[in-house]
Design brief:
Chain B: It holds the Pfam family HBB. The complex is a heterodimer of chains A (546) and B (774). By secondary structure, chain A is an alpha+beta fold. Chain A is built from 19 helices and nine strands. In chain A, strands 4-3-2-1-7-6-5 form a seven-stranded antiparallel beta sheet, covered by helices on one side. A two-stranded antiparallel sheet of chain A has the order 8-9. Chain B has 33 helices and 23 strands. In chain B, strand 12 and strand 13 form a beta hairpin. The chains are: A alpha+beta (546), B alpha/beta (774).
């Protein structure tokens, strides 16, 4: 569901009693589309969310079928019966969010005033969970802005002061706050533990030196690794154990095969495999893996697909082209069947690590559990991921064409808006906020408490607005374009205004505001120095803009 | 941005432009104006492709009265995909700013293997079996059979496409191979034949070199391209090799055995036909009397690979009488195969010219030159007459006929070399008879003759004056551009010693020294712990890489490496390597970080970019070498010297093989093109950065080092010429820290602009580019 699109199997009805047309309901960004399974059926549907005025749904636990009823602005109603409540809820949330979007800023603010804050927040949170970041940024941002705005009156004040005062643009003001929302969204997704990079099964067998005995150590973790890297071994285990052989015998055979493999004694391996067909399974190339490879190669990034190169190369038909000019390496040929190389194993291992494991640490009990858990997750994945795959591919392709662009030739779009946390700033903010914190906490020095409320509020507001200014000021350096230049000039003007205001207050409250004044002065000094440097440079070189 | 170069308005899809790109466009425009060929060298990382595409498409938009077509040739399919992605980006920009007037049709063309959407066909294993599987469903006789017999399987995609006839067109847009497949699937039309058909109408065609250079392919695909085309060969530093490979054939024992089987099968088919449809063979005979005109009116689905010789060299006359009858032709083939078999059965190296070889075939096997020359077309005609669709089974006999036709057509520029074994492995008999072309100008000549402008461009074309001689053409513009960097974003280092101060090298007597192996391993272990994202390692050969990885595995070094990064490895299996690369990129993208082990002469080094976070560090373990005693290479050098007065030394330094005269079999010849390729693909733009470590004590010697490309040498500081592992580590840390600082992108602090804005470009247009840049 990472694509911003939801597709579910439904029955489409015009009234509750209608038997319904089976088909698929897809919800995309701005519209909903219903496609009947029977392509000749007349009941197709394709409408934009903006025409939907209301939606109702059956509650879970009632003995009715899970249904969603959408009402359009013309009063027509569309009823969809889902296969499960889970499906219904996903679609309901989607429609709800889409509806929310439709209201825009004003609508949300209005709703907020109608005391539906919690409900809306819940909706948005769900939406964020289910959709890719870019979509959230473009569409939810609008709503969240408003919510943020209404909920934090402090923010509102800041906004009025800077955006209203023309110091910052709307975009700049919100750019530094985008992060707040994202963090919230990310925390919700449960993260699985990854796999270790190093190869566990490669750990050396233990040889005691006196006898010919070789000991392999297997832990459930290693077993997990073996099963995920060698699906044929996994399959063999499920087939043979315990019906045909005991767990221990299976692993003895496996280790025997591994030992033969590693000793590179191909002749011996062939001989043993000929006698023992179970052992041969471990030595043969993995057919499940081969199939998977064939499937994966079709979905590889086309800008590095060397297999397509081979498929297009008619100059190198067999025996065409230059065969022996010393540029090609002499390849050793061997018995292909029993030659699994370390290099292949390493590639396979890294691929599995990258893919991640579907098995949690707690399931790592014994071999049987691991084998079954792995099998279950495999089945789940194969049923669930078919639809996802193609859309994931699309995403990836989009990423590729984006990667083709040359970053620094692009104009500084959005770049200057990114919040930059440099050391000076964070130290400053830390100082300031700790002062504020301590001031309130320590009863002995409750300086703030001793002040009249109006002065205290004013002071705190100064603090917040200076913090905001500093954030923007420092993130504008180095000045690489005109835009930043004008922004800094504007900020500087605002800062000097602040400064003079603070000077007045500071007469009253030296010990507190001195830090704030310091912060402002540091920034102003930096500005002056930079400005001087620029001016002198501009005189030398007519090409640099000033 | 939008700016003027003289009368042409150039639409460039970025807000800024590098000065190199601007001057590159100016030069390119001059060549287009002069309707001549040109040669342009510009380092990687300067956005060559987008500059080229922008200028040529803008030029075409400006000159609507005489529309030009762009034929863009890439070395490989994955480079084609990259080019199309850039073109898509450009096209979107142009349409946005110019509206519908900027709309164009651009397609990438590839083989059936890469375009087929019929699941029954595309599941076949390799290129040749896909071609054959397709023919089994689409050949004209198969289709006419299907008209009578509904049980005869055909390809629905081809049938739909054929039924749509003139209606089957691609709407304007830029189509990658995936886009073509998707479009084909949606419409139910065969994307391969649709694309081949649309090639004549497209404004831009992107395909690989051989579609123009290899007569076998060009003969069927590129016949109808108009003269008013601009042909671009991108990444063309190896173009001479592509040219000579296109005209070279080799015959081995397996080939001959296969050919004998093929001949018997053809014989059976002839007998069968005699029984059921003798008239058909007679009709063929009559057609052959009239000449080879048949090639023109074959339906597209029947076309096989075309004649291996160049179109101008094929005589349009009747097939000689002695091979007109099918049985006679088979006798000729049998004698030819027998003759080659005897020739191959030798225990010493032989070298012959085509003339004497043809003469001895004539006296020993009784086949004259003219019959040899017609072998390919005669075979083609016979297979058509016999309605053979499983063409992949007949590759061996096709090779023999290719060989015969080439040897019968060309008297100069080729030689025949018979070697009983590979000199590097004298104990393993593997006789081979090679017909090798020495003259790269042969294959490319028709391209220069046919098209108005041919642009040859690459990151490394030095010495630039050698290419016109090798390819025998006269460029109107020949320029080499340097890259101006905003900051020192590349950091080459020469590492000569490990932390224990013992020298490291892949020199023959040292390479298996456990100390060297350990020091190499320790270097990597240290580097993986400090370098973010991707690291690429190149080894001198597969066998060396295999050996060293195995010993790192034994000694636990590999385990240490894997503590920090995942390990992916290039193997000799292309599919596995592709998947490994794909996973490597994913690992770099997701932040896990990875190391890619590759081979200096392998396929990955040749064409895969390791730019940005995909290659923050490249380590070259040892000095890549080329075996220079090869008979073919020697013969080619001799030919170049005699024909073009190119001295051996010139070519070899150029081709990166040094002092062949001083014979030392192993280890001494650094391949400049190879080394440049391995490390030269780290930089994508001036904002990008990367380090390179040349780990071998021999790099500290001037003569080895000087073979490295100039743009690397210019960044190689004297202090970095003789480092040990701990010093390199320190430098790497410092470098990465420096690169993490913000910097001024326009370069105005360094005195010379390295990035131009709209305003700067307009100023340039008025003042002339030169004075500002140089």
């Amino acid at each position: 569901m990472s694509s911003g699109q939801v597709t579910k199997r439904v029955k489409y009805k015009t009234s509750v009693k209608d038997a319904g047309t089976p088909g698929r309901l897809s919800l995309v960004k701005e519209r909903l589309v219903f496609r009947p399974n029977n392509p000749n059926s007349a009941s197709k549907l394709d409408m934009q969310f903006k025409y939907i005025t209301n939606h109702r749904y059956t509650k879970e636990g009632s003995n009715k079928a899970p249904m969603l009823n959408l009402t359009s602005n013309q009063g027509a109603s569309y009823i969809f019966e889902f296969e499960s409540y889970e499906d219904l809820h996903i679609c309901r949330d989607f429609v709800g969010c889409a509806n929310l979007m439709k209201f825009g800023h004003k609508g949300v603010a209005e709703l907020l005033h109608r005391q539906q804050k919690l409900q809306i927040l819940e909706l948005i949170r769900k939406f964020i969970q289910n959709n890719p970041a870019e979509m959230i940024c473009s569409s939810v941002q609008g709503c969240c802005k408003t919510i943020d705005y209404v909920l934090h009156s402090e923010l509102q004040k800041l906004h009025q002061q800077f955006v209203g005062g023309g110091v910052l643009t709307e975009a700049e003001f919100w750019a530094t706050r985008k992060k707040l929302l994202e963090k919230d969204a990310n925390r919700k997704a449960k993260q699985r533990g990854g796999l270790k990079s190093s190869v566990l099964a490669e750990s050396k067998p233990f040889i005691d030196g006196r006898t010919n005995r070789v000991t392999f150590n297997l832990t459930p973790e290693i077993v997990r690794e073996i099963f995920s890297e060698k699906p044929a071994v996994h399959r063999a285990y499920l087939n043979f154990v315990p019906s045909k052989m005991a767990d221990k015998d299976f692993w003895t055979k496996y280790c025997r095969a591994e030992y033969l493999q590693r000793s590179k004694n191909i002749a011996a391996a062939i001989a043993e495999a000929a006698e023992d067909e179970e052992l041969a399974i471990f030595l043969k190339p993995d057919d499940i893996l081969a199939n998977e490879t064939r499937r994966k190669i079709r979905r590889v990034d086309p800008t590095l697909d060397m297999e397509t190169d081979q498929g297009d190369d008619y100059s190198h038909l067999p025996d065409h082209g230059i065969f022996r000019d010393g540029s090609k390496e002499v390849a050793e040929s061997g018995n292909e069947l029993y030659q699994r190389t370390l290099l292949q194993d390493l590639n396979r291992h890294a691929a599995v690590v990258l893919q991640g494991t579907p098995i949690d640490e707690e399931q790592l009990k014994d071999t049987q559990t691991v084998a079954e858990a792995l099998e279950r997750s495999k089945q789940e994945r194969s049923t669930a991921s078919k639809d996802d795959e193609s859309s994931a591919d699309q995403e990836r392709l989009k990423g590729i064409s984006q990667a083709m662009t040359i970053d620094d030739l692009r104009g500084s779009n959005d770049h200057h808006l990114a919040p930059l946390w440099i050391k000076v700033l964070s130290v400053l903010t830390h100082n300031i906020s700790s002062t504020k914190y301590n001031l309130g906490k320590k009863p002995g020095e409750s300086l703030l408490d001793s002040l009249p409320t109006s002065v205290r509020d004013e002071l705190l507001h100064h603090h917040i607005s200076i913090e905001e200014l500093m954030k923007h000021f420092w993130s504008s350096y180095p000045i690489t374009n005109k835009y930043l230049n004008t922004k800094v000039t504007k900020l500087k003007d605002e800062m000097s205004k602040m400064d003079s205001q603070l000077q007045v207050t500071s007469l009253l409250l030296n010990s507190l505001s001195v830090r704030l004044v310091q912060a402002l002065e540091a920034a102003m000094q930096h500005y002056d120095a930079e400005q001087q440097k620029r001016a002198s440079k501009a005189r030398e070189k007519p090409n640099g803009y000033s | 941005m939008k700016f003027q170069i003289e009368e042409v308005t150039v639409y460039f899809p970025y807000d800024n432009i590098y000065p190199e790109q601007y001057t590159y466009m100016v030069e390119l425009k001059r060549a287009l104006d002069a309707k001549g060929h040109c040669l342009l060298e510009m380092p990687t990382g300067t956005g060559k492709t987008i500059a080229l595409l922008s200028l040529i498409t803008s030029y075409a938009l400006a000159k609507t009265e005489s529309p030009i077509k762009l034929i863009y040739c890439t070395r490989t399919v994955h480079e084609m995909e990259k080019t199309l992605a850039e073109l898509k980006f450009l096209h979107n920009y142009q349409v946005k700013h110019l509206g519908a007037a900027a709309k164009m049709l651009a397609i990438g063309l590839s083989s059936r293997k890469n375009l087929c959407v019929n699941p029954k066909v595309s599941s076949a294993e390799n290129r040749d079996s896909v071609d054959a599987a397709c023919r089994k469903l689409t050949a004209s006789w198969v289709r006419s059979m299907a008209a009578e017999n509904p049980n005869q399987p055909t390809c629905e995609f081809y049938e739909n496409y054929d039924r749509a006839a003139g209606g089957a067109v691609l709407p304007a847009g830029v189509y990658t191979l995936e886009d073509l497949r998707a479009f084909g699937k949606e419409k139910g039309w065969c994307p391969y034949f649709l694309a081949r058909h649309m090639v004549q109408f497209a404004n831009v065609v992107v395909y690989s070199y051989q579609y123009l250079l290899d007569p076998k392919v060009a003969g069927i695909i590129s016949k109808e391209m108009q003269k008013e085309s601009v042909v671009v060969f991108d990444e063309a530093h190896n173009i001479d090799n592509v040219c000579i490979e296109a005209l070279s054939v080799s015959v081995r024992r397996q080939t001959l055995e296969g050919a004998i089987r093929n001949i018997s099968r053809i014989e059976n088919e002839i007998d069968r036909f005699k029984d059921i449809d003798a008239g058909r063979l007679r009709a063929e005979y009559n057609r052959l009397v009239e000449g080879l005109a048949l090639r023109g009116d074959l339906s597209a689905s029947d076309a096989w690979l075309a004649n291996p010789a160049l179109p101008d060299d094929i005589l349009r006359q009747a097939v000689p009488g002695n091979i007109r009858r099918a049985e006679h032709f088979l006798h000729v083939l049998r004698r030819l195969v027998q003759y080659l078999k005897v020739k191959l059965d030798t225990d010493k190296v032989e070298k012959e010219s085509p003339v004497s070889f043809v003469a001895s075939i004539n006296s020993d096997a009784g086949i004259d030159q003219k019959a040899l020359k017609f072998c390919y077309d005669r075979l083609h005609s016979l297979l058509m007459t016999l309605e053979i669709t499983d063409t992949d089974e007949f590759l061996h006999i096709q090779t023999i006929c290719d060989f015969a036709t080439l040897v019968g057509t060309y008297a100069r520029g080729f030689s025949i070399i018979i070697e009983p074994f590979d000199e590097r492995m004298p104990l393993i008999p593997d006789p081979v008879l090679q017909l090798c072309c020495h003259d790269a100008s042969l294959a490319i000549k028709p391209v220069f003759d046919r098209f108005q402008s041919v642009v040859i461009t690459s990151g490394t074309l030095s010495p630039i004056d050698l290419y016109p001689r090798l390819l025998n053409f006269h460029p109107v513009v020949s320029r080499s551009f340097k890259m101006s960097l905003t900051r020192d974003c590349i950091c080459p280092m020469v590492l000569t010693r490990g932390s224990d101060q013992l020298p490291v090298s892949t020199k023959f007597d040292m390479r298996s020294d456990p100390g060297v192996v350990r020091n190499y391993g320790k270097l990597l272990v240290e580097m993986v712990s400090i370098v973010p994202d991707g690291i690429v390692c190149f080894f001198v050969s597969y066998s060396y890489m295999d050996g060293i990885i195995n010993s790192w595995n034994e000694s636990g070094i590999l385990k240490d490496i894997m503590q920090h990064k995942l390990v992916f490895i290039e193997t000799q299996d292309v599919v596995e390597t592709t998947l490994a690369l794909d996973n490597y990129r994913r690992a770099c993208d997701c932040g896990r970080g990875a190391v890619f082990f590759s081979v200096a002469r392998g396929k990955v080094a040749e064409g895969i970019d390791f730019d940005r976070h995909y290659g923050r560090l490249v380590i070259m373990f040892g000095v890549p070498f080329q075996y220079t005693e090869s008979k073919i290479l020697r013969a080619r050098l001799e030919y170049l010297r005699d024909t073009f007065q190119i001295k051996e030394g010139d070519f070899l330094t150029f081709d990166a093989l040094i002092d062949v005269m001083n014979i030392e079999l192993t280890d001494r010849n650094l391949n400049q093109r190879q080394a440049a390729q391995c490390v030269g693909r780290v930089i994508r733009s001036k904002a990008d950065y990367g380090m390179m470590i040349f780990a071998d004590k021999r790099y500290s010697r001037h003569d080895k080092r000087s073979k490295l490309p100039g743009w690397i040498l210019s960044h190689l500081r004297d202090a970095n010429l003789n480092l040990s592992t701990d010093m390199a580590l320190h430098i790497a840390r410092e470098f990465l820290r420096k690169m993490a600082q913000p910097y001024e992108k326009t370069g105005s602090t360094t005195g010379r602009k390295t990035l131009l804005s709209q305003e700067d470009v307009e100023k340039l247009g008025n003042n002339g580019a030169q004075e500002m840049l140089y």
